[in-house]
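Worked Example 4.2. Consider the chain below.
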Amino acid sequence: MRRKRANNHAFPTDGYTPQKIAHALHSAIARRLEQHLKNLGKTSAQWLHAVGIHSASDLRRLGAVDAYRAVRTRGFRASKVLLYAIEGALMDVHWNDIPAERKEALNKQLEAISTRNKN
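Applying the procedure from the previous section yields the following structure tokens:
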């Protein structure tokens, strides 16, 4: 396979479509999220990436509830554990170590938004 040099990196030039390159890039971004934030595995990171969350700062800016809602709205079958996992990632703690009061507050916030959107 021929390779071209650009910015001191070798890039393959044969057999790579824009779709393959985009997929590889998306996978790399999802892996970065997964590696840098607690609680987020491959699937969670891919879901977050699919809804436009590509970094920890994106996640912080959106917050746990809105990030969770974005994933669910996109059609992914995420359980409440994802909500807690995102909050744990933001707090840098395992999701099981989030106090029950905080989990309850997250659930109330989610419910309030859902109720508001139904009306």
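The chain has a mean pLDDT of 80. The first helix runs from residue 18 to 36. Compare this with Example 4.1 before moving on.
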